[in-house]
Amino acid sequence: MNSHPQLDERGKLKHLLSIEGLPPATLIEILDTARSFEQVARQDIKKVPHLQGKSVFNLFFEASTRTRTTFEIAAKRLSADVLNLNVSASSQSKGETLLDTVDNLSAMQADMFVVRHAESGAAHLIARHVGPGIHVINAGDGRHAHPTQALLDMYTIRHFKHRFDHLRVAIVGDVLHSRVARSQIHALTTLGVPEVRVIGPQTLIPRDVERLGVRVFHHMPQGLRDVDVVIMLRLQNERMNGALLPSRDEYFKFYGLTPDKLAHARPDAIVMHPGPMNRGVEIDSEVADGVQSVILQQVTFGIAVRMAVMSILAGKQERLP
Amino acid sequence: MKIRINQGRVMNPGNGLDEVQDVFVAAGKIVSIGQEPSGFTPNKVIDAHEKWVLPGLVDLAARLREPGYEYLATLESEMFAATAGGVTSLSCPPDTDPPLDEPGLVEMLKHRAANRHQANVYPLGALTQQLKGQRLTEMGELRDAGCVAFSQANAPLTDTLVLMRALDYAATFDFTVWLQPQDPHLSKDGVAHDGEVATRLGLPAIPACAETIAISTIMELMRQTGARVHLCRLSSAAGLALVRAGKAEGLPLTCDVSINHLHLSEHDLGYFNAHCRLTPPLRSPADRNALRAGLSDGTIDALVSDHAPVDMDAKQLPFEAAEPGATGLELLLPLTIKWAHEDRVPLKTALTRITQAPARILGIAAGQLAIGGVADLCIFDPREEWVVTPHSLKSQGKNTPFLNLPLPGRVTHTLVGGFLVYESSPH
Description:
- The complex is a heterodimer of chains A (321) and B (427).
- Chain A is built from eleven helices and nine strands.
- Chain A is α/β, with parallel strands linked by helices and 321 residues long.
- Chain A has a five-stranded parallel sheet.
- Chain A is globular and about 55 Å long.
- Chain A starts with 23 loop residues before the first helix and ends in an 8-residue tail after the last helix.
- Chain B is an alpha/beta fold and 427 residues long.
- Chain B has two domains: 3-53 and 373-423, Urease, subunit C, domain 1; 56-362, Metal-dependent hydrolases (TIM Barrel), CATH 3.20.20.
- The longest helix of chain B is centred in the middle third of the chain and has 17 residues, at 209-225.
- The mean pLDDT of chain B is 96.
- Chains A and B meet through helix 4 of A and helix 5 of B.
């Protein structure tokens, strides 16, 4: 338990559980490797043999379409055998514990688990439990972390902005419940972004978040002033009416990204969103579909980034020619 | 049974006694300290050379898990763990299954515990039926069955009117009500202190004001009803400040803190260490330091193990889903000594917090080592450093955030009512 949860004794990545605790070089290695995989998608035959003969188990305890699909595509392009398991629907409802499920799948010679779970820390728990040859990728645990999403976001930012060390980045919305935001904050600060801001009503900003190295703004136009990157967060339906927020209309009025509010950012600012978007809630369609939006590119990059993570974990990260 | 304990460092924090002496036990009592009574022929002689001879510890919070949770632990395993930790009197919260809300259950527990001839067990009765926070229990009957006070354990009592009436009713009979101060709404889904670590780990949080609001409410109701209250498991500096003010005002208020909150903070959660899933949550290092100071200056009356054996399976879960609680009976004394060493608290003061002070809260004649008194005592070897491992713990609960920690010293013998009930096996 005292050993590093994600790196082996030689400092090599053995699991990807969170961005926190990873050195900048590891993040850069993933981004560089992803760049070499990006061209695979443009080939006629979109396959490389890096994970041939390996079994990747997509272990989703919580529903997801997009993330699971991109992991599946990434694994298949690496020639892995992919198994998709929606566990919420099967064994968990029969009372099998999380680790029993993992043990059973390990016994089927899994090489890699891609795990999504509704509770924070689930991926860490599984990683502590599995045998030494098995790698765990966190595809989202509770409110804690979603490292591959943050990495693809960093890939996107680097693609458009080239460097990190001169940027102002604002993350807007429901930071409290967002595993994406937490991973983004760690990734941005690790990669040397000098100013990371979070913007939202106080009900959606977690306590002491400044300790993670961000500045808090409640007034969106102020928070967006002169930023290079605007990252919008999804607001879940169940949070819209209640004790956290009075209504979606009021939320949109103060924290929805409209062309007016975006005008406070730098003119060349890019707009990102981890998806799926709530148009008219956190983002106006005019912005989502506008010239500054790079939301669809994020999805495309997501495949290359996940290929990079899987191949690095499998020890097959040598660059393509 | 006559026992002679030779040349131990005999300490009685109650009267400041601290000298190397022989102790003579006969007919369940300490018959002499120092001078050998004439014609004393011991059945057993214990060599306590370079060891400490202390009053048996009094632990205000030890779950024995009976009735109802025998798969977690049994009276047999946990009462053995108690004596292995030097605990000779303990009170157990009513959070059993069913809860201790009927006299028959309490009588059965007392009877079964007495049959084991180990530590003295003082059950806390449920304050409300099934701990549901709605209807009062038969407190008078429960007292007659053996309950020493009344408690909600960690079960929420959301209705302030019920709380006021419970305090009014308890005050009628001069019963003490034990409450774990935590606002049920503010703590409903939370599992960690509302601060940096919960933010980093993405865990649902419980703010410190959950404690201060509850304490404020309780103190207002104490002023209203005149009831006497013991606050269980303080966790915050702000909560402690309220208690300090309440005591200064003269409210009949006592409180305790657990060994976990005395030594750990939110940072010990690391990457989701489920052993640190505790109620109330571990708070900031500043809170912990305030609690240590409060225990030292006596604002906090007692230090408790908050013993809660939990199945390992129930800890092998994501942090939020893991069952709260930690084993503690065998750690109480070493962790008290560790705190005293670290904070340079006089040994006498530190020992008072686990002997005389908790005995006074329970209203029992225990926690003393004096001629004519009951021979409840333990012998502690301060030279025996040991490491907390599942194997080194007698309790069936192996769940503790202190796993792999080396601890200073260990109990070698425990006497209850003049009987040697525990003797460590020699190496």
